[in-house]
Amino acid sequence: MTSLKERLASGARLLGVLLRLPAEDLMEMVALSGFDFVVVDCEHGPDEVADLRRHLVLAELHQVPVLVRVGTAEATLALRALDQGAAGIIAPHVDTAAQAQALVDAVHYPPLGHRGFATYTRAGGFGTADPAEHQARLLRETLVVGMIESPAGVRNAAAVVAVPGLDAVMIGTADLRAASTAQDPPPAESVRAVNAELARSGCARMDIVGTRAAADAAFADGAQLVVYNLAASLMGHLADLRTAGR
C-alpha cells in the first residue's frame, strides 16, 4: 500500500478526521467511510498508549494510516506511537527552526534523526523486519507535521518550513488567536502569511475544519491535507438535529 507521505509527495489531496474521543467504533466508522487518514489527538484527548495501540491496530485492519498528535516536546510519546505503528506525528507549538529540527530528530531514525532504533516493536513486526529495510522504509514513509500556533511561530515561519524532514505545517488557529495581542498582526493576516510561506517553500499545508464547505474552501485555497475536527462537526450536527419541530 502506498504510504500517506508518498501519496502527499505525488500531489494527492488527502482528507482525514481528527478523533479526540477514544472510541473504537468511531475509528471503524471513519475508516469504513473511506477517509484517507485519521488523526488521534493525544494532546487534548485522553488516549494513553495502550488505548492508542488498539486504535492503530483497528485502523490498520482497514488500511487507514493514523497520525498521532502529541503534546509539546513529547519525544517519548512520539517514539512510542511510532513503535506501535503510527504513520506520522503532529506536534504543537513549533515556534522556531530549532524546535522543528528537534521534532524531526525525535521522529526519524538516523541519519535524519536520532529516534531510538528497534525492530522488536509492533512497527517492526516484533523482530521479523529486516533492520536495514525497516530503517529505510520508515525514512520514506513517516510523516512529520509541525503546528505553528503563536505570533513567534508566524514570524519564524520561513525558517521553520525550511527545516529538512518537516513534511507539513498546520496552523493552530485557536492558540494563535489566544496568543495574539494588540501588537501582533490580526490572526487572519498571520494565517495568510504562513500559508503564503508554505506555498513558496513547497512544504505541505494541513488545515483543520469543521464543515464540508470549509474543507472545499481549504482545498481550493491550496491545502493538501484537510482534517475534520469530528467533535466540532458532531456538535454542529447535533445542534442542527435539535431544531426539528421548532
**CATH fold node name:** TIM Barrel
| Total strand segments | 8
Proportion of residues in extended strands = 15-25%
Question: Please, what is the average pLDDT?
Answer: 94
Element string (H = helix, E = strand): HEHEHEHEHHEHHEHHEHEH
Number of domains: 1
Q: What's the name of the CATH homologous superfamily?
A: Phosphoenolpyruvate-binding domains
Walk me through the structure.
This protein is an alpha/beta fold and 246 residues long. The chain has a single domain, classed as Alpha-Beta Barrel (TIM Barrel), CATH 3.20.20.60. The chain has 12 helices and 8 strands. The model has no long low-confidence stretch (mean pLDDT 94).
Ordered list of secondary-structure elements with their pairings:
Blueprint: H1 4-9, E1 14-19, H2 24-32, E2 37-41, H3 49-61, E3 66-69, H4 75-83, E4 88-91, H5 97-107, H6 131-141, E5 143-148, H7 151-155, H8 157-161, E6 168-171, H9 173-179, H10 187-201, E7 204-209, H11 212-220, E8 225-229, H12 230-241
Parallel strand pairs: 1-2, 1-8, 2-3, 3-4, 4-5, 5-6, 6-7, 7-8
